[in-house]
Amino acid sequence: LYFTPRQLNDSTVLMALDVAPDAFWGIEYTLPKGESYVVRVRVVQKNMAPVVQSNNRNLGFTWQQDLHRQEQGRMFEERNSALYYKYAGGSVENLSESGNDTEERKAKIKWIGFKNQFFSSVVIADRPFNTADFHSTTLQGTDYLKNMQAQAVVNDYDWTSENPANFSIFLGPNLYPLLSDLDDTLYPDEDLHLTKLIPLGWSIFRWINTGVVIPVFNFLGKFISNYGIIILLLTIFIKLVLFPLTYKSYKSQALMRVLGPDIKAINEKYPGTENAMTRQQKTMALYQKAGVNPMSGCLPMLLQMPILFAIFSFFPSCIELRGQSFLWCHDLSAPDAIISWSGDIPLVTKYFGNHISLFCLLMTATNILYTWLNTQNQANTMPGMKWMMYLMPVFFMVFFNNYAAGLSYYYFLSLLITIMQTYAFRFIINEDKVRRQMAENAKKPRKKSGFMARLEEMQKQQQAMLREQQKGRR
Fold first, then answer.
1. With contact defined as beta carbons under 8 Å apart, do 353 and 340 qualify?
2. HEC profile of 40-64
3. What is the DSSP letter of 352?
4. What is the DSSP secondary-structure string of 390-425?
């Protein structure tokens, strides 16, 4: 079939299929005013019913695309490219990013999107598709990442109507403010959830990005053009927000360090597995006497974890960093490779890549320094555990080498500030004063906390079970 282009005005073109002197079927494309990255599409026809003479009421829709590679890091771009779709009045889902996938949906679909790491093509139906089949195939050894296909059907097609179907096509960047505005303007009566094209983490982490990180990041971007400076200021802001939790966690660590010699003495006095319960009881009694809760240092750290995971999702999805240079890095959204090589090295190429990122190296070195700082003056740390603690930064280096330089740069800054805070806390929190305070606490009668009472009850039950087992063996 051959279509004839007709320019209707300065923003609309009709691709017309003339089937009779006074009958045609066509697709009309309109560019709205302003830079909205949206094309309006109308199916138009005239006098088609007598020509077609068909009782077919289904409009078939077929779309396929070979997703071209756009970014430097193929491995990471491939992980962030997928076929997305949204149920009418429902949630957004997607096919697997990591391999071939196929889905058949017998439900109303509002939109279908072929998403790259930073750009998307999305077809939005005014009247939802009734059914849809989706296919995604990974392409190896080419400049293309994946082949994506969608076959959908719109029911109740009317051959007598001049305008039986309408669509909107979004062709643009995965920019959160832009997609959020389109949600409000394209279809005000239904939330399109186009922002779900940006992977900002699970719901528990996503609200941190949408409610805190992105607004602060965009606010700083209004006044500062250098995104390396923006990331520095964002890091300082997050550290200030977390400061009360960080201080409480460090204070708890200081209390545990002071008790280190006493805990060591208990372990030496009651060695062996047969004295395990006695050691635990004596240690708990020591905590109770000194007024120390061994879990008080864990809770502040746990409360910080959602922010760490939110940041982990934010930077690799931040299109604002694309093409932005800082210091030696030419693109903060890609790895800042200082050494690269070709060829396929078994295991190395697959997991580490064919390059070494400098910000990732700096983050690793800082992480090792922070680990060393934490292991100093820690009581009763087993040698094997210390070895594992030093192995973790190396593992993170392998993991982050292919990630965006902006992410490694943020973690490098965050660790650097944490190290400075640790040294500052050592001057602020005087351990001699802590010892005196703990000695005063030991003199005062203290009511057992609920946690300590439950722990002691569990210990008693364990001891009773142990005695019963020993009786049985005798």
1. no
2. EEEEEEECCHHHHCCCCCCEEEEEE
3. I
4. HHHHHHHHHHHTTS-HHHHHHHHHHHHHHHHHHHHH
Structure confidence by residue, pLDDT tens digits, 359-368: 999 999 999 9
Note whether 148 and 64 are within 8 A (CB): yes
Sheet hosting strand 59-68, strand order edge to edge: 59-68, 144-154, 131-138, 101-105
Q: Residues near 433 by Cβ (< 8 Å), separated by ≥ 6?
A: none
| Phi-psi group of 136: left, alpha or beta (phi > 0 → left; psi -120 to 50 → alpha; rest → beta) | beta
What string of DSSP letters covers 174-229?
Answer: --HHHHHHHHHHT-TTS---GGGGS---SHHHHHHIIIIIHHHHHHHHTT---HHH
CA distance 125 to 111: 6
Tokens 């201080």 sit at which residue?
Answer: 247
User: Tens digit of pLDDT for each residue in 404-462?
Assistant: 999 999 999 999 999 998 888 877 766 666 666 666 655 555 555 555 566 566 666 66
**Rounded-to-integer distance, Cα 197 and Cα 94, Å:** 9
Whether 154 and 58 have beta carbons less than 8 Å apart is answered as yes
